[in-house]
User: Which sequence fits this backbone?
């Protein structure tokens, strides 16, 4: 299979304050392969978002090592896209100018990258809204715009931190299906943090369950669904889906009885 795209080796992270130290993540080891989608679930406060921040280079590991393509995180030059809970679209810029913001910052406003944006706008129903402002779009449309902005830089790894949590149920289902299909079509290796177990299963090749803080890996569950042309939406109709849901729910429920 070759070298995994992303590797965690006994990674620990500890928050330091004037009065105390708090270990957020402990002995985290896993791999992410090319074109693979992994979902992380676990109790609130178990370090899921911290894990993504470590990969993005926003936080330094306290100990252990993160490697990308066999190189240290510091030596890696691949693009990592990060999509947060909020879309963070700038209200004073049109949708199109929001989507080109990353390209402007990285001095990549060339035809090849602009063609990617145009194609995505047309494919996912936002072309007619490219000159609108964020306040004129629905929540689902804003999240699609945020994803296009992230994909415009052609990331090899995509980090998703509960990107659908602010949406109503029906919109959440539609947007997660669209985004999941885009990711699969483009073959982007992805890590998703979510509290929605059905969402985790329907989108992932593997689900990693973290314990309560300090977060450690309790279980890694490969997802194999006997359904053709799998999408996040059709995955929920697979005969194995409920079995996976119950297995993961039990694993998380053991860590936090208040987990919903």
Assistant:
């Amino acid at each position: 299979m070759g070298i995994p795209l992303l590797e965690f080796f006994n990674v620990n992270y500890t928050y330091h304050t004037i009065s105390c130290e708090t270990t957020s993540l402990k002995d985290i080891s896993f791999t992410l392969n090319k074109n693979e989608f992994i979902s992380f679930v676990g109790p609130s406060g178990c370090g899921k978002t911290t894990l993504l921040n470590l990969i993005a280079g926003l936080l330094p590991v306290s100990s252990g090592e993160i490697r990308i393509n066999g190189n240290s995180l510091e030596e890696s030059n691949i693009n990592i896209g990060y999509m947060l809970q909020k879309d963070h679209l700038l209200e004073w810029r049109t949708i199109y100018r929001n989507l080109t913001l990353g390209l402007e910052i990285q001095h990549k406003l060339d035809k090849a990258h602009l063609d990617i944006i145009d194609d995505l706008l047309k494919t996912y129903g936002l072309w007619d809204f490219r000159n609108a402002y964020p306040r004129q779009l629905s929540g689902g449309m804003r999240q699609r715009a945020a994803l296009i902005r992230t994909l415009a830089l052609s990331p090899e790894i995509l980090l998703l931190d509960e990107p659908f949590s602010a949406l109503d149920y029906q919109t959440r289902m539609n947007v997660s299906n669209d985004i999941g299909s885009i990711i699969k079509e483009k073959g982007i290796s992805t890590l998703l943090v979510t509290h929605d177990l059905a969402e985790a299963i329907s989108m992932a090749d593997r689900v990693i369950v973290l314990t309560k803080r300090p977060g450690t890996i309790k279980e890694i569950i490969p997802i194999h669904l006997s359904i053709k042309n799998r999408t996040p939406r059709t995955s929920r109709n697979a005969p194995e889906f409920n079995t996976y849901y119950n297995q993961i729910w039990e694993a998380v429920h053991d860590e936090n009885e208040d987990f919903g």
